[in-house]
Write a structure and sequence with these properties.
The chain is an alpha+beta fold. It is 40% helix and 24% strand.
């Protein structure tokens, strides 16, 4: 019997190379899309944190029966791009409050609501945080 040892042909090697290339390109597309979603989540988390900080200031002023503080101007931290370089785009969150009105039927309970707005990919976005607080 003859021992026939056969290796890969050039065509088989090229076909394997093409398949690996397509697999790698599809993986790069997934990674790129994941970075975009992470950036969106980052802005949403920042907006909630900014809203909660302002809501804390409103609650404290309401508890102490003081004038409500005006909304601060807070810059969005754009983070880093896919290449690891700092993004230099500047954008700010817009904060509004409802004035912390007294809850209907109650004499000391206030309903404080803060809405944080920003623009993302030419589309307006917002998040609302709310808390009840009583005067002391």
């Amino acid at each position: 019997m003859k021992n026939m040892s056969r290796g890969f042909s050039v065509i088989e090697s090229l076909l394997a190379l093409v398949l690996i290339t397509f697999a790698m390109l599809s993986m790069f597309g997934l990674v790129s899309s994941a970075f975009g979603l992470t950036e969106q989540d980052s802005k949403h988390i920042q907006a909630v944190a900014v809203g909660q900080q302002y809501l804390d200031a409103l609650r404290q002023a309401t508890q102490d029966a003081q004038a409500l503080p005006s909304a601060p101007a807070v810059n969005v931290d754009p983070g880093f791009g896919q290449t690891g370089s700092q993004i230099t785009a500047t954008q700010t969150f817009s904060l509004t409050n409802n004035g912390c009105p007294i809850v209907t039927g109650d004499k000391v309970m206030h309903n404080c609501v803060v809405t944080v707005s920003w623009t993302e990919a030419s589309s307006p976005k917002s998040v609302t945080v709310q808390s009840y607080v009583s005067e002391q």
